[in-house]
Amino acid sequence: MNLIAWIILLALLTQTLTHMVADALNLRGAEVIPPELDDLYSPEEGQKAKAYLKARTQMGWFQSLLSLSLFLLFWFFQGFPFLDRLVRALNVGPVLTGLAAFALLGALKSLFGLPFDLYGTFVIEERFGFNRTTLKTFVLDRIKGLLVGLAIGAPLLAGILAFFQHAGDTAWLICWAVVTLFMLGVNIIVPTWIMPLFNTFTPLEEGDLKSRIVAYADTIGFPLQKIFVMDGSRRSTKANAFFSGFGKFRRIVLYDTLVNNQSADEVLAVLAHEMGHFKLRHIRNGLLIAIAHTGVLFYLLSLALSFRPLHDAFFMPTIEVYTGLIFFSLLYTPVEFLLGFPLQAWSRANEYQADAYAVRTSGLSGALVSSLKALHKTSLSNLNPHPLHVALNHSHPPLLQRIRQIQREGQKPPS
Fold first, then answer.
1. Residues in contact with 317: Cβ distance below 8 Å, sequence separation at least 6, in sequence order
2. Which of 121, 273, 335, 342 is 20 to 30 A from 301 via CA?
3. Looking at the structure, do residues 294 and 328 belong to the same domain, yes or no?
4. In terms of domains, do 11 and 95 share one?
5. What gap in Å lies between CA 199 and CA 253, rounded to an integer?
6. Is residue 30 part of a domain?
7. Cα angle at 391 between 301 and 374, to 5 degrees?
8. Can you give the residue ranges of the CAAX prenyl protease 1 N-terminal domain (predicted)?
9. Which domain holds residue 242?
10. Residues 398, 304: one domain?
11. Are residues 252 and 299 in the same domain?
């Protein structure tokens, strides 16, 4: 093993261990419900929430350790050279050879994850009363996802492989430009054509709720396009709302579980929060960060593709574009792991800001608090997550911290 191999190995082990320690601390923290939230769960519900967290955590541990073990076996028993010989035997040229290798690796990853998806959906989610997915829907979702991935991902990956194969020193710039256009296009394609393949989106019917949403949007100058209700109850009892797309493709989506189980004030408060993300430019800024990050990735990738020690670390006798792409993703693991901390912190800061915006513009601080409580209760959320677990995994702040911030904002005099 050379130095690069040791760096990658230690990064993988450190990342796995850190997540497991954070999970263990999170489980311990779940034993204590903060006094301000002790009325949210009954004693029976509190025990159920702890059991749900424990079941999900233990399955995650098993999946993570098994995944790491199988990967290390594949690596050290020279699985990558074997894969290379296998796809080279097809004699289809470097781009199609690379696509074949990614297809095989993707198939192995999907097959590995399938039992865990089945167990998580039909055992854990079923046991705790969340699952409404039928086996037919589960299978169709996987087939649709595979077809969509092939239709969109395969041409994009083929382009990246081709550019790095033939475009020389400017390949990373071309790939950056292409992927940037792809990222922008996704914001149009996904809400308009992809999401309806999986769920039914019905325009919100006329009535008090829609009238209040439209009136609120007018007061803040929000360019409201479409409001849809999604049949989230088809798969789960959990509720949510989200904002997608931009321009004339912009849409607000409410889960039917949210509309049916929360008051008009609570739904409006949640939407005010989502609109706050748009008005505060969080969505735009997130896209700009993603574009900049992609540019840095492609530049570093251009340096790593011909880096002989990187290929030696995985026992590869030759340097290939597709193997360089795979190996670079593994070498980048420690950087991605460290970047996760500030990016998650930035996301949590955005949530606080969106909450404050919703309170200032709608005056529905009480409704926002009650809605958040209801969403956490119906999801059996951990009410006392450990700070390390939050730093690693949470794009949203813990419930208690959000409530305190909302209440402080609600007590401020109108500006």
1. 81
2. 342
3. yes
4. yes
5. 11
6. yes
7. 120
8. 29-200
9. 201-261
10. yes
11. no
Phi, psi dihedral angles at 251 (to 5 degrees): -150, 145
**127 and 35 in one domain?**
yes
Q: Establish whether 282 is an annotated binding residue.
A: no
**Tokens 């340096």 sit on residue:** 303
Give the model's pLDDT for residue 324. Answer: 92
> What DSSP assignment string belongs to 70-116?
HHHHHHHTTHHHHHHHHHHTT---HHHHHHHHHHHHHHHHHHHHHHH
pLDDT at 223: 79
d(CA 289, CA 307): 27
In a domain, 186, yes or no: no
- Decide: 349 and 391 in contact? Cβ < 8 Å: no
My answer on whether 210 and 331 are in the same domain is no
> Are 255 and 362 within one domain?
no
Reported as a pLDDT band with limits 50, 70 and 90, residue 193 is: confident
Q: Which residues of 397-412 are buried (b: 16+ CB within 10 A; e: fewer)?
A: bbbbbbbebbeebbee
Structure tokens that stand for 403 in this block: 């409530």
- Return the pLDDT at 248: 66
* 80 occurs within a structural domain: yes
Q: What is the mean pLDDT of the chain?
A: 92
Measured N-to-C along each axis, helices 365-378 and 264-279 cross at an angle, to the nearest 10 degrees, of: 100
d(CA 310, CA 291): 26
**What is d(CA 164, CA 322) in angstroms, rounded to the nearest whole number?**
9
The model's pTM is 0.91
Q: Is residue 206 annotated as involved in ligand binding?
A: no
Kindly state whether residues 229 and 297 are assigned to the same domain.
no
Percentage, residues of the chain above pLDDT 90 = 77
Helix/strand/coil for 377: helix
Tell me what pLDDT residue 414 has.
63
Q: Is 409 a catalytic residue?
A: no
The answer on pLDDT for 238 being more than 90 is: no
Nearest one of 41, 2, 12 to 331, comparing CA atoms: 12
Known catalytic residue at 274:
yes
Q: Is 336 within any annotated ligand binding site?
A: no
206, 274, 312, 409: which is the annotated catalytic residue? 274
Number of domains in the chain: 2
**169 belongs to a structural domain:** no
Closest CA to 352 of 412, 403, 388: 403
Integer Cα distance of 195 and 238 in angstroms: 18
Q: Which residue in the list 23, 84, 125, 355 is annotated as catalytic?
A: 355
Q: Give the type of residue at 9.
A: L
Distance CA 159, CA 166 (A): 10
